[in-house]
Design goal:
about 375 residues; alpha/beta; four-stranded parallel beta sheet; 13 helices; about 15% strand; binds threonylcarbamoyladenylate; binds magnesium ion
Length: about 375
C-alpha cells in the first residue's frame, strides 16, 4: 500500500505558494516541484532563457532533452467534452502527430508516471528537446504539481531536481541539500514522493512503441490495460541510439558518492569481503524478512544492517531516500540485494545498476549494465 503524498502546508498556504511559483516561472525563474515520481526542477517550456537556466543549474549537457509537464483536464473541461477529447486538446499543440496508440496510453495512465515521446510541433523550443525532432510529455499525478500547472496555464520543462548524474530527490529537503548554493531557489514542498523512481518512458514517435526507461508502469501493465505492445529498448532495428536520448540510459547515473555494490541472494558477506579494507564501515541493506543473525554480521561493529521492503513499489518509493540518507553518513561501502527478476523490478534494477556504476571513487569490479 502506498501512502498519499502529504503536503506539509495548508490549502491557503499552498495557494499562496503556487501563486508565488507562477510569478517566478513567468519571470523566467526556476521552481522545484513535487511530483509522484521525484522532485522536478521546472521552468516555462516556452521561455528559452529559462530552459537554459535548468541546464546550467544541473550541470546537464545541452543535448539531453527535457520532459514537458502538462496539466490534466480540469473537471469542467472534462465534463464539457468527453475526457479523451479534453486530453487531445491539451496535448495536440505540442505534437505534430498523435497516434491512436498514444491516446490509449494517455487515457489509461494519465495523470501518472508515464512519459510519452512523440514527434514535436514546430513551435517547441529546440532547447527543450536537445535539438531532437521529438518531445517527451507527461502529466504528473500530484496535487501540488497539478495546482501549479493549472494556475500557470502552460507547459513546464522539468528534469529531476538533482545535479547531473546524481541521485534524484524525493523530498523537498533533498532538493535544498542538492542546491544548497542557490539560496533563492523556490521549492514547493509536496511531501515525500510516493512512486520514488522516475517515470516510465515510451517512445511512440516512429514505428512500434519502445520502452526507453523502465518505471513503475510496466509494459505488461500497458498491454493488459490498453492492448498496446511496448517493445524492449533496442528491439526496434531502426531505433536511433546515436544521441543520449535518455540521460538515465548512461551507464553511470543516479549515483551516490559512497561506493555501492549489489549482492546476489545469500552472497552478502562474500560481497563485503571483496572490499579491500576489512575495517570499512559497511551499510548492509537486507530484505526486511531476512535480517541476518550470522555472528559475523551481528558481532561486527563495522557492519550495520538496514532493512528494505520486499514489495517492488515500496522498495522503489524508499530507494533514493535510502541512498541519500546512507550517503550522508560516513559509510565506506553500501551493499544492497540484487532485485528479483520480473518487470515490476525492472525500474529499480535499472537505477541500482547505474547507481553502482557511477558510485564512489573508481573501483575495478563495479556492477555495470
Ligand atoms: O518522473 C520523471 O520523469 C521526472 C519528473 C520530474 O517528472 N523527470 C525526469 O526528468 O526524470 P529527467 O530529465 O531527469 O529524465 C527525463 C528523461 C531524460 O533522460 C531525457 O533524455 C528523456 O527523458 N527524454 C526527454 N525528451 C526526450 C525525447 N524527445 N526523446 C527521448 N528521450 C527523451
Ligand atoms: Mg534525472
Amino acid at each position: 500500500m502506498k501512502a498519499d503524498p502529504q503536503p506539509t502546508i495548508s490549502t491557503a498556504e499552498l495557494q499562496q505558494a503556487v501563486e508565488q511559483a507562477v510569478r517566478r516561472l513567468q519571470q523566467g525563474g526556476l521552481v522545484a516541484i513535487p511530483t509522484e515520481t521525484v522532485y522536478g526542477l521546472a521552468a516555462d517550456a516556452s521561455n528559452e532563457q529559462a530552459v537554459r537556466r535548468i541546464f546550467s543549474a544541473k550541470g546537464r549537457p545541452a543535448d539531453h532533452p527535457l520532459i514537458v509537464h502538462l496539466a490534466a483536464p480540469s473537471i469542467a473541461e472534462a465534463s464539457e467534452i468527453n475526457r479523451s477529447d479534453a486530453w487531445f486538446k491539451l496535448i495536440a499543440p505540442w505534437v505534430r502527430d498523435l497516434p491512436e496508440e498514444a491516446m490509449r496510453l494517455v487515457e489509461a495512465f494519465w495523470p501518472g508516471p508515464l512519459t510519452l515521446v512523440l514527434k514535436k510541433d514546430k513551435h517547441v523550443l529546440s532547447a527543450v528537446t536537445g535539438g531532437q525532432d521529438t518531445i517527451a510529455l507527461r502529466s504528473p499525478d500530484h496535487p501540488v504539481a497539478q495546482a501549479l500547472l493549472q494556475e500557470f496555464g502552460g507547459g513546464l520543462a522539468a528534469p529531476s531536481a538533482n545535479r547531473f548524474g546524481k541521485v534524484s530527490p524525493t523530498r523537498a529537503a533533498d532538493v535544498s541539500a542538492e542546491f544548497s548554493d542557490q539560496a533563492d531557489l523556490l521549492i514547493l514542498d509536496g511531501g515525500d514522493c510516493t512512486v520514488g523512481i522516475e517515470s516510465t518512458i515510451v517512445d511512440l514517435s516512429s514505428g512500434a512503441p519502445v520502452l526507453l526507461r523502465p518505471g513503475a508502469i510496466t509494459p505488461e501493465q500497458i498491454e493488459q490495460k490498453t492492448g498496446v505492445r511496448v517493445l524492449a529498448a533496442g528491439a526496434r532495428a531502426d531505433a536511433d541510439t546515436s544521441t543520449p536520448r535518455v540521460s538515465g540510459s548512461l551507464k553511470a547515473h543516479y549515483a551516490p558518492n559512497t561506493p555501492l555494490r549489489l549482492y546476489a541472494a545469500g552472497a552478502a558477506l562474500d560481497c563485503i569481503s571483496q572490499y579491500p579494507d576489512t575495517k570499512s564501515h559497511v551499510a548492509l541493506v537486507v530484505w526486511e524478512s531476512e535480517q541476518m543473525r550470522d555472528p559475523h554480521v551481528l558481532g561486527a561493529s563495522h557492519i550495520q544492517q538496514v532493512p528494505i521492503p520486499e514489495q517492488s513499489d515500496l522498495f522503489a518509493s524508499r530507494l533514493y531516500r535510502l541512498l541519500r540518507d546512507l550517503d550522508d553518513h560516513t559509510w565506506d561501502l553500501i551493499v544492497m540485494p540484487e532485485p528479483p527478476m520480473g518487470q515490476e523490478w525492472d525500474g529499480v534494477r535499472d537505477r541500482l545498476q547505474r547507481a553502482c556504476f557511477g558510485s564512489g571513487p573508481p573501483v575495478s569490479n563495479h556492477v555495470s549494465s
